[in-house]
Write the structure tokens for this entry.
Amino acid sequence: MIRSLLALSMLLWGVAAAAQETHEYPALYRVTGVAATDVLNIRSGPGVGHQIIGTFAPTQTGVEVVGTTQDQRWGRVILGETSGWASMRFLARTGPDWSAGLPAPLYCSGTEPFWSYERLPGGGNFDSVTAAPEPFAETWSGPPSGRGPQTFGLVLDSGTTTMSAIIARDICSDGMSDRDYGLSAHFLRRGPQGVELLQGCCTLSR
């Protein structure tokens, strides 16, 4: 009986740990523990044997990590139009708290057609090659009922156009660059010109 209870408790702990890890990324970090005269190297792969493709300053903030190696020693970081790896030993998390809801600001964009949506507190701004820039009020946002903060929905209204969006926390590609995003996005836009479904990715920082 005791062995059964111990096995059950270990199983539940493993499930809880896995759930916590699932909800960890993407996230923003700051560089820490790097000397003022040094830099944090960004490498092409998770390990010191890989080529250096960039650096972070010792006071760098807003470093977006979209995931880590299994041992959590190396983080996959965004570097312009590509991605690289940095040692998690020198990165300290600054947010967001996903259990508090979808963070703002949030920057979403897609290609073919090119479009963008900047989410701000209470609303945001949509722009596209097929439509003029348009501000939107956010009438609702939240996760699925009875589910954790892995996927979020948005309801937006500009007065003449409405949009519904699903933003999910998973690895996403824009199809044009080598950059890995930590959030995927689908926007259903209904306006005077008709209805269109837009697909893209989102970031926590520009």
Summary: Residues 2-22 form the longest helix (21 residues). Confidence is low (pLDDT under 50) at residues 1-22. The radius of gyration is 20 Å.
